[in-house]
Design a protein that fits this description.
Blueprint lengths: L6 H9 L4 H6 L10 H4 L16 E6 L5 E6 L10 H4 L8 H25 L1 H4 L7 H14 L4 H9 L12 H16 L17 H16 L9 E5 L10 H8 L3 E5 L5 H18 L4 E5 L16 E4 L2 E2 L5 E3 L1 E7 L12 E5 L2 H5 L6 E5 L5 E12 L2 E8 L3 E4 L3 E5 L5 E7 L7 E4 L4 E6 L14 E5 L3 H5 L5 E4 L4 E8 L3 E8 L5 E4 L4 E2 L12 H13 L2 E4 L5 H13 L6 E6 L2 H5 L1 H8 L6 E6 H8 L4 H15 L3 E4 L4 H6 L4 H9 L5 E4 L5 H12 L15
Parallel strand pairs: 3-4, 3-29, 4-5, 5-25, 9-10, 18-19, 25-26, 26-27, 27-28, 28-29
Antiparallel strand pairs: 1-2, 6-14, 7-8, 9-13, 10-16, 11-12, 11-15, 12-13, 15-16, 17-23, 18-22, 20-21, 20-24, 21-22
Helix pairs in contact: 1-5, 5-7, 5-9, 7-20, 11-12, 11-23, 16-18, 18-20
GO molecular function, one term: pyruvate kinase activity
InterPro entries: Pyr_Knase, Pyrv/PenolPyrv_kinase-like_dom, Pyrv_kinase-like_dom_sf, Pyrv_Knase-like_insert_dom_sf, Pyrv_Knase_brl, Pyrv_Knase_insert_dom_sf
Family: Belongs to the pyruvate kinase family.
């Protein structure tokens, strides 16, 4: 074993990765300057790794009042091991010499990993016992990533060995196995200590077992024959249907997600009650995940539109009716059967009115414009203790709450019913390129300090926006559907010029995301609303999602709140949706492992793409999965999975491939939409269909 007090020997081993000319001409930041004795002192300790992957920094504090600063200092250069290219070509070199050379480099790399582990021993000892192996392996992985090992991997491949970053689950065991194999092949021991490397307890079976236990502690045990969980976001719509929760659970959902940014405890409670009841009735385990809103910037709530609905038949290019609009006519709260598809729902409260209706009847009404219209009853369905009808409408009608419906009853007497519960139209502003948008502090919309002729106006409830942004910075709305440039700011208003929108304009409504990638906005880890909602989550949910995690400080704040409430068993999902959250992920996970709560990571691809750039998203996703694999932490992939199917009923080819690639993660999240049941069913099939290789017919080969 090589200790830190033998730093000169270790430095020589590590620097064997660099050519003599590289050592003479360039500065290399791979150093281990602290001795074991120094590590006991209450001074700052810096861990520096050299790589080309980025920078991250975090400060840790513990009960010993020892402050520890970890930093990953990655030069942009990728030539850390460029000397390998100038060495003798493998095909022309002596085999024994090549094996000896590779062994020397592997031994030096092993020393590098062990030094990194010892360097961080004081912090690793603070980790919860069940996460100690995970944290240690993550340190090994980050130490491995700090070096450019591409050429070394090529050498290993030429010797018939797998690359060093192929097995993230136990980095040191994989490295030990490679060294032992080469030593056996060489049939000679080059140094006295190289033959004592343990093979370790790591096997593919053990690795998978460990990962499975961490996954099950957070997400629950997968259903029989399943390995990947399906999470579905639900909202108030789940309380309006008696069958919705049943349908999505039967389709394959095993986790229900509630976003605390929307709704209130009364709605959340009703959803959770239905989930628990249905899960028990169907004997299908289903956990509840609740996302705290976090310090996310959103548009304010617009005034609701009029309570009116448009019922319109399908027409051809000449305006002729091709097929009538289908209307579901029922008592308030009665959903149509799952196999019945309609264009609109008209609710009434009068049971006697519905009892008088028969198939073939014509229901007369005068719509919101004063136009006389008719609904022809075509089908009748018995739903639970009520009856509903499908009616055909051949003319466009605008129906509002209070619209009178009349039907001829028995003995020629006409019965009248009233339409109720027509939902308000969603309010929005339609933004086009070149438009001006004025964003005002919430509560000040009616008292603008600046009058901008022709500008659209919205509010934002967060003061961070007005306190931090500067003219010239870019600003995105609704997950990047709309982009603009900030033209002016004041303590209460921000003026934006729209630079990107759809050809016919793009709608921007209430509670849509706002992103300012270039701005240095300093958010608090947990908002006052988050802390208040955490009380509810703790007593009702199985896991909590922490939005907009940025650095170790956010984890420290979370840890304090969980400890204060003695929430040692509540699952914690860290949502990575910012550039800083991605860069600090390894440090964030190491800090999260200091407490016993089950922990996981959600790749929130919506905000992540807007914050980091669309073109980087795929690589960032791969990096997050690799880091979490090394930490043995379950990963949830979220945002726009099968979105076209959820919204329109037809998926794109790219979405199918995206969903299939999600087999590598522990859980996949679907957002809500009118075709969510079909989407869950298809995702379940995609995730759990095994590829069956069929041997080609030999007769067809000729």
């Amino acid at each position: 074993m090589v200790g830190l007090d033998s730093s000169h020997l270790l430095r020589d081993k590590i620097l064997c990765f660099s050519s003599r000319s590289h050592m003479n001409n360039q500065h290399r930041k791979t150093s281990f300057s602290l001795s074991l004795n120094q590590m006991k002192l209450p001074i700052q300790r810096t861990l520096a790794f050299a790589s080309a992957r980025g920078k991250g920094e975090a400060t840790f504090s513990d009960n010993t009042s020892t402050e520890c600063t970890w930093s990953f200092d990655f030069p942009d250069s990728k030539d850390a091991m460029s000397h390998l290219k100038s060495e003798a070509d493998l095909s022309g070199s002596n085999g024994a010499n090549n094996v000896a050379s590779v062994l020397e480099k592997l031994n030096a790399l092993r020393s590098h990993l062990l030094a990194a582990e010892k360097w961080n021993a004081s912090q690793l000892h603070l980790c919860d016992s069940k996460y100690l192996e995970c944290a240690t392996n993550l340190v090994h992985y980050m130490a491995l990533r700090s070096l450019d090992i591409e050429q070394l991997n090529s050498h290993l491949a030429s010797l018939g060995l797998s690359s060093l970053d192929n097995n993230n689950l136990d980095v040191l065991a994989h490295l030990n196995a490679s060294i032992n194999l080469l030593m056996n092949d060489q049939n000679a021991v080059t140094e006295p200590w190289t033959n004592v490397y343990p093979k370790g307890k790591s096997t593919k079976k053990n690795d998978k077992g460990r990962v499975l236990s961490y996954k099950e502690s957070l997400l629950g045990k997968p259903r029989e024959g399943r390995s990947t969980h399906i999470m579905v976001t639900v909202g108030e719509e789940a309380t309006l249907s008696e069958t919705f929760i049943t349908d999505i659970l039967k389709a394959g959902t095993s986790i229900i997600r509630i976003n605390c940014a929307h709704g209130d405890p009364s709605i959340w409670g009703e959803i959770i009650k239905r989930v628990r009841r249905t899960s028990q009735m169907l004997e299908m385990p289903c956990r509840v995940h609740m996302d705290l809103a976090g310090p996310k910037l959103r548009t304010g709530t617009l005034k609701p539109g009029p309570c009116v609905m448009k019922v319109s038949p399908k027409k051809d290019a000449y305006g002729n009716v091709v097929s009538p609009a289908l209307v579901w006519l029922c008592l308030t709260g009665t959903e149509p059967p799952s196999h019945v598809s309609t264009d609109a729902t008209i609710s009434v409260e009068d049971q006697d009115f519905l009892a008088a209706i028969q198939i073939g009847d014509s229901i007369r009404l005068c719509d919101a414009r004063g136009r006389k219209r008719r609904l022809r009853i075509s089908k009748e369905f018995h739903v639970f203790n009520s009856t509903g009808f499908v009616a055909e409408c051949f003319d466009t009608a605008y129906i509002e709450s209070g619209t009178e419906l009349s039907v001829k009853g028995k003995k020629g007497r006409r019965l009248v019913g009233q339409v109720v519960d027509v939902p308000p139209k969603e309010s929005f502003v339609r933004l086009k390129v070149g438009d001006l948008l004025v964003i005002t502090r919430e509560g000040l919309l009616d008292e603008p300090s600046v009058t901008v002729p022709g500008a659209h106006r919205l509010t934002c409830p967060s003061g961070y926006l007005f306190d931090s942004v500067k003219p010239g910075e870019t600003i995105g709305f609704d997950d990047g559907k709309i982009w603009g440039v900030i033209k002016g700011t004041s303590p209460s208003e921000v003026i934006v010029s729209i630079t990107h929108a759809g050809p016919k304009g793009t709608k921007l409504g209430s509670e849509k995301s706002i992103n300012i990638p270039q701005s240095d906005i300093h958010f608090k880890g947990l908002t006052s609303k988050d802390i208040k909602d955490l009380e509810y989550v703790a007593s009702h949910a199985d896991m909590v999602g922490i939005s907009f995690i940025r650095d170790v400080h956010d984890i420290t704040v979370l840890r304090q709140e969980l400890k204060k409430r003695k929430l040692d068993d509540l699952g914690v999902v860290l949502k990575i949706e910012t550039e800083s959250g991605f860069k600090n992920l390894s440090l964030i996970l190491l800090e999260a492992m200091k407490y016993s709560n089950p922990v996981g990571v959600m790749i929130a691809r919506g905000d992540l793409a807007v914050e980091c750039g669309w073109e980087r998203l795929a690589n960032i996703q791969e990096e997050i999965i690799a880091i979490c694999k090394a930490a043995r932490v379950p990963v949830i992939m979220a945002t726009q999975v099968l979105e076209s199917l959820v919204k329109s009923g037809v998926p794109t080819r790219a979405e199918i491939t995206d969903a299939a690639n999600a087999k590598r993660v522990s859980c996949v999240m679907l957002n809500k939409g009118k075709n969510i049941v079909e989407a869950v069913s298809m995702l379940d099939t995609i995730l759990h269909t095994k590829l069956i290789y069929k041997k080609p017919d030999s007769e067809n080969l000729h």
